[in-house]
Amino acid sequence: MIRFICLFFLLLPNLCYALQSEAGVLQKTVNELSNCEKASKLKIWSWVGFVNGNNEHDPKHSNGKRSTFITHNEKVNAKTHFVIVWFHGMHGYNAGTFDGIYDYLVWLDKQNISVTFILPELPWSSNVNGIDGRYVWVKQDSFKTFYDNALAKVPKLSKSKETHVIVAGHSRGGKSIAWAAKTGGLCKVNPTWVIWSDATYGSWLQKAWEYCLKDIPVHMEIFYLRNTETQTSVKKFQLINNSTLVELIPMSSPWYHGKIGDNVLKISDVFKLFIKQ
Fold first, then answer.
1. Sequence-separated (6 or more) residues with CB below 8 Å from residue 29
2. Which of 12, 210, 219, 266 lies 20 to 30 Å from 181 when distance is taken between CA atoms?
């Protein structure tokens, strides 16, 4: 009965609070998300299921399909709404990841920020066996397909709001940014802001920039740890970037890799720029 009522009110934001899960989602994932939601005491719309565009049929996944977690917390009086797509790192999409996401959701709620949060399970999640050499958004415009289908799942947003898209990648999530740019979908969702959370390993940053980010008016914040591989990549990127919309933020102790991922949205300038305090 509860599920029927929630489905009935699906188009009315914030009336159905309990996590809704689509049949076939790994029960471990559902349990972990439910536990995090209960602990947070948040009253927001939340859903986990399968979204077209993310190559969700995955033979290396423990149950053969990768899922996507979505929450929606529209603030009626807010003039600005943010759609945040978060690309998790290696061995993510588990209880630890969800703890971090719900910490962000609680913080966003306290800041009275109107937000839709989208967390796709990537091919290097904790539920996948054999993650080396794996790629995501391999089909042309697949990230755009995923983004559109994910938004179609959430309650209808008030048309009076100005919407900004934030794409953030932590750690191996930088690879996800690079491939979304390579196959065209990233820039077609017209992101306002791209955040690299100590995610500039290898040539991911340079490639994402060359594939399409250099061609759109996008703000980029690049957080990286000093004297590490991510700094080496940033130094190479500086040779090809001259955009005034790009900010490089070096981090030193007591900051470390995981701490950056757990706090990067809180220390980002994106909300300060678009929301007047």
1. 48, 67, 69, 93, 121, 127
2. 266
Q: Cα separation of 7 and 253, whole Å?
A: 47
The number of beta carbons lying within 10 Å of the beta carbon of residue 78 is: 16
Is-contact 115 81, C-beta < 8 A? Answer: yes
User: Token pair of 185, please?
Assistant: 């979908």
Is the model's pTM score more than 0.90? yes
Residue ranges of the domains in the chain?
16-271
57: amino acid identity, one letter: H
Identity at 91, one-letter amino acid code? H
The CATH homologous superfamily of the domain defined by 16-271: Alpha/Beta hydrolase fold, catalytic domain (3.40.50.1820)
Please give the Cα distance from 269 to 219 (Å, whole number). 10
Each residue of 157-174: pLDDT tens digit? 777 789 999 999 999 999
